[in-house]
Design brief:
There is one protein chain. The chain is α+β, with helices and mostly antiparallel strands and 591 residues long. It has a five-stranded mixed sheet with strand order 4-5-14-13-12, with no helix packed on it. A five-stranded mixed sheet has the order 20-19-21-17-22. About 5% of the residues have low confidence.
């Protein structure tokens, strides 16, 4: 915001009657000097500038006893809105977002300014530049977590890493097969205890060096050295042998029929052995990391990508907490729509089912009535899946009794009455104590938590909400008995499920005790040795441990929503249901 506008705001805020536009306010130069923290001489200079730009009318007092008059010609909201628009027009997105946090920005004005900001999101063609860059801007309502393949667990960060890095093979959900990635071919011996990958030649990392088999070996070794939360799934690997720069062999201690899943997942994104990820991010993916700070993450197309170069030149992901939406915005700004095809409908949304669901999980590290199974059964009734869909609706699609929608559809869900929940509370020994329910401070999660709180109150159960922005397992363990969370699975749902049961960074490992974890871990002992159909049965048994003990209470499967413009072409979803930004482009003219 420019100095003159700031001076105006200082005066308008400090002088109580300034809300009455056109009404003269008696004031002295000395008082104005105090407000503006400057000398009387500088006050006169500032007043002259404000008057020249149409902010005020100034009538100085003439002679002894004649006080000066200050008349405001504009409102605070008008000035803020004009400054916001000016920042947007200049491409100063960071400064515009900072302006939103000013105390003078009312909720109504903030909503209006957010609409202006959202129009700057989506596709922009920088025609004024000689390079003619095509840019996509996306908003997010939380800061980025660690962008490290060894530790990543959250869906959006995994999605981003998939744009920056590549894996040896890729999983194709449509055909349920594996396709070449950094390895153009692979083979295994008859008993699946030895795998060889043949690497592409000439693949470049973002920092310029070509990839070799050593990078693959060091990537795996890094998981071991960092004790990656996903490491337990790789425990069968006994040794890694380099058989030249473009051939690598993995020798296993026992047969592993799940091996390709493990080498197509984000944890085995290939990193360069000569770059420290703490200081530099360098992968072989379609986009390279150009900038990452507390306001924005910027990706730039990698011209030397071994596959097909992205058609979008740059992607900016802006942190915008005020938006607090679960929708993904790919909306074109109005300024970019003038040259679009006339028969293209703009500004629409698409829905798509997401693998996974929202659910409740109990914190067994904290003492309390929730340790009693009858109490958890009462919560099962209160957290009614049918009632959630009927009363809250939204993106909630079908009742869940598994993370997998097709498994949920096989199960008959019977939900007793609230009166039965009341009886279970009494039988459990509940004495009226207050329990804390933790959930992310996001619109849908907050809405669902408030709904559950109200239903609990109707049967005499007291629940207090604890809203958080970033998950902190220690805080949850110490403060809350129940957690409302959401699990979104990869397209490779078998990997997603077994990773959920093995990854020590997730909610499950944070809130269950070791002896509970052993119960479902034992079920999955032979998972990697088993053929596909047997693996599916094992995953169902592991879920059964959670379900039958009422440790996890499934809610509803979700339809995710994306706001976009149909002028965006190449719409393909990648893992977790996000649009694959490496395939997006826009058609702006017709034949």
């Amino acid at each position: 915001m420019d100095h003159i506008s700031n001076h105006f705001l200082c005066l308008a805020i400090a002088i109580p009657s300034s809300i009455d536009i056109g009404e003269a306010n008696p004031v002295t130069i000395d008082r104005l000097a105090s407000i503006l923290c400057c000398t009387p001489r500088n006050v006169k200079f500032i007043l002259r500038k404000l008057e020249e730009q149409g902010f005020i009318h100034w009538q100085p007092g003439r002679g002894r006893g004649n006080i000066s008059q200050l008349t405001f010609l504009r409102t605070i909201e008008e000035v803020l809105e004009d400054n916001f628009q000016e920042l947007i027009n200049k491409g100063k997105i960071k400064e515009a977002i900072e302006l939103l946090s000013r105390g003078q920005v009312s909720d109504t004005l903030k909503e209006r300014l957010l609409m202006v900001l959202n129009k700057q999101m989506g596709f922009r063609s920088e025609t004024e530049s000689t390079s003619g860059l095509d840019v996509l801007r996306i908003t997010r309502n939380r800061h980025m977590e660690v962008l490290d393949p060894a530790y990543v667990y959250t869906a959006f960060e995994s999605y981003l890493l998939g744009q920056i890095y590549s894996t040896l093979v890729t999983y194709d959900a449509a055909s349920d097969t594996f396709l070449p990635g950094l390895a153009h071919m692979w083979e295994a011996n008859e008993d699946c205890t030895s795998y060889i990958f043949y690497l592409r030649k000439g693949v470049r990392f973002h920092h310029g060096r070509t990839m070799t088999s050593r990078d693959v070996k060091e990537t795996f070794q890094r998981l071991i050295e960092l004790n990656s939360p996903a490491l337990s799934l790789y425990k069968d690997i006994e040794r890694v042998e380099l058989e030249g720069d473009h051939r690598i062999r993995f020798e296993l201690s026992r047969p592993n029929l799940f091996f390709l899943h493990m080498f197509s997942c984000i944890h085995m994104s290939i990193l360069p052995h000569d770059v420290d990820l703490v200081n530099e991010v360098s992968g072989t993916g379609p986009y390279r990391l150009l900038d990452l700070n507390e306001d924005v993450l910027v990706l730039a197309a990698f011209d030397y990508y071994y596959g097909i170069r992205p058609l979008l030149d740059r992607v900016e992901i802006w942190y915008l907490p005020e938006q607090a939406s679960n929708e993904r915005l790919y909306e074109l700004p109005e300024s970019a729509q003038e040259g679009l095809l006339p028969n293209i409908i703009c500004n629409h949304s698409i829905d798509y089912p997401a693998l996974g669901c929202r659910y409740l999980l109990f914190n067994f590290h904290k003492d309390g009535i929730h340790q009693h199974q009858l109490f958890r059964q009462a919560i099962r009734i209160l957290y009614s899946r049918e009632a959630l869909i009927k009363e809250l609706g939204g993106n909630r699609s079908t009742p869940a009794d598994s993370f997998l929608p097709w498994e949920s559809s096989k199960r008959s869900i019977i939900e007793p009455t609230l009166e039965h929940a009341r009886e279970l509370l009494v039988a459990s020994g509940y004495q009226g104590e207050t329990l804390r329910l933790a959930t992310k401070d996001k619109k849908e999660e907050r809405e669902e938590a408030l709904w559950l709180q109200a239903r609990a109150a109707s049967v005499g159960l007291h629940i207090k909400l604890y809203l958080f922005n970033e998950f902190n397992s220690a805080n949850i363990k110490n403060t809350s008995e129940i957690l409302l969370a959401e699990e979104v699975l990869e397209d490779d749902w078998q990997w997603g499920m077994v990773n959920y049961f093995n990854n020590k960074l997730n909610y499950l490992f944070s809130l269950l005790r070791d002896e509970q974890i052993l119960l479902f871990s034992d079920v999955l002992t032979d998972f990697t040795q088993s053929p596909k159909e047997e693996r599916i049965k094992l995953l169902d048994q592991a879920e059964g441990v959670l379900r039958d003990n009422y440790w996890v209470l499934y809610g509803c499967h979700m339809n995710k929503k994306a706001q976009l413009n149909q002028s965006l072409f190449g719409l393909q979803t990648s893992s977790f249901g996000f649009l694959d930004i490496s395939k997006l482009w826009i058609k702006t003219t017709s034949l």
